[in-house]
Design brief:
- 50% of the residues are buried.
- Helix 6 runs parallel beside helix 7.
- The chain folds into two domains: 152 residues, Alpha-Beta Complex (Quinone Oxidoreductase, Chain A, domain 1); 130 residues, NAD(P)-binding Rossmann-like Domain (Rossmann fold), CATH 3.40.50.
- It is an alpha/beta fold.
- Helix 4 links the parallel strand 9 and strand 10.
- Strands 3, 5, 6, 7, 8, 15 and 16 form a seven-stranded mixed sheet that branches. A six-stranded parallel sheet has the order 11-10-9-12-13-14, with helices on both faces.
- The structure holds NADP nicotinamide-adenine-dinucleotide phosphate.
- NADP nicotinamide-adenine-dinucleotide phosphate binds next to helix 1, helix 3 and helix 4.
């Protein structure tokens, strides 16, 4: 089968499609014929080599965590899903390989009819990550939440999930994305110098939680929250320990060493919640751009600009 991979550190051009052995569903897994899959910004950092001390790549590095497709194998012990069902879901941080003709999923849910294949293909990672962090921050009705980097793949989903929980959401983005953030239910402001003052003006009573999708601004975010325990980052911001901020991730310890701290338990229950919200028209997966599988390198190049509006998706 075709699979996207890289076999050395380097620029986006090292990303290529290779012929590899198709994987099979083991116990508690399913395999899908992939229709669409997500690009993971974290893998662009791994590929570039800039994180090699923290997440050393095991070559060949098969890419992709999330996919949507049609079930074609059901592993032992799996119930409630059958060959031919349309699903979206995720691989694990250890196995990856979703940017391929066939992918083995370890968590999945029925593909919402309201979502295109592209939306469904890019959904699972953002939904799981956003749920994991909103759960840890105990975001609920009546809370005010700041989402830093709200216009990206995770941020756009996090805004909608927090709104669905009844929170008031302030999201940061460049000004050209402010109407877009409003359309998702957030109050927009810009990131960068003066953030603390802008947030005080928007939320004079303070914010209850800060969800950082961007990195690089933890001192300001801790000031805004008033307590590092009310800030969680998902960015590879290795100043987090110094600022006593938790980095939420799901990567296995052998791939991250000590720098990122212990992995959090995956919040796969978020996939089921997402199906309900999608059916109610309360959750979309904004797709920044789509590329054919063969153009995965161009997708990495766009991801590296750090200005994609929503999720970048490969179509198969
Ligand atoms: N730990 C985990 O479990 C986990 C899971 C998923 C992703 N991640 C990581 O989390 C981060 C976010 O993922 P993603 O998929 O949302 O990335 P993404 O889609 O590439 O994020 C792009 C967004 O980042 C915004 N942005 C760029 N520079 C910024 C800055 N200095 N401050 C605030 N926002 C900024 C951009 O906003 P404008 O264009 O409006 O400027 C753009 O909308 C990445 O580093 C990714 O690797 C971690």
């Amino acid at each position: 089968m075709r699979a996207v991979q890289f076999t050395e550190y380097g620029p986006p051009s090292v990303v290529h499609v290779a012929e590899v052995e198709a994987p099979h569903a083991g116990p508690n897994e399913i395999r899908v014929t992939v229709r669409a899959s997500g690009i993971s910004p974290g893998e662009t950092y791994v590929r570039s080599g800039r994180m090699r001390d923290v997440v050393p790549a095991n070559f060949p590095w098969l890419t992709g965590f999330d996919a949507a497709g049609v079930v074609d194998e059901v592993g032992a012990g799996v119930t409630g899903v059958a060959v031919g069902d349309e699903v979206f879901g995720m691989t694990t941080a250890a196995t990856r390989g979703a940017n391929a003709d066939f992918a083995v999923l370890t968590a999945w849910a029925p593909k919402p009819a309201a979502w295109s294949w592209e939306e469904a293909g890019g959904a699972a990672g953002s939904v799981e990550t956003a749920t994991r962090v909103l759960d840890r921050l105990a975001v609920g009705a009546g809370h005010t939440v700041l989402i830093q980097g709200a216009a990206g793949g995770v941020g756009t989903v996090a805004v909608q999930l927090a709104v669905a929980r009844g929170a008031t959401v302030i999201g940061t983005a460049s000004t050209n994305n402010h109407d877009f953030l409003r359309s998702l239910g957030a109050r927009p402001t810009t990131y960068g110098a003066g953030l603390v003052e802008r947030i005080r003006a928007l939320a004079p009573s303070g914010v209850d939680a800060v969800f950082d999708c961007a990195g690089g601004a933890l001192p300001d975010l801790v000031t805004i929250a008033g307590d590092p325990a009310r800030v969680v980052t998902i960015a590879p911001d290795f100043t987090a320990a110094e600022h006593r901020v938790h980095i939420s991730h799901s990567a296995p310890a052998e791939e991250t060493g000590a720098a990122m701290g212990a992995a959090d338990r995956l919040a796969v229950h978020g996939l089921t919640t997402a199906v309900t919200l999608a059916s109610e028209g309360r959750l979309r997966v904004p797709v920044a751009a789509t590329f054919p599988l063969a153009e995965a390198a161009a997708a990495h190049e766009l991801s590296e600009t750090r200005h994609a509006r929503g999720k970048i998706v490969l179509v198969h």
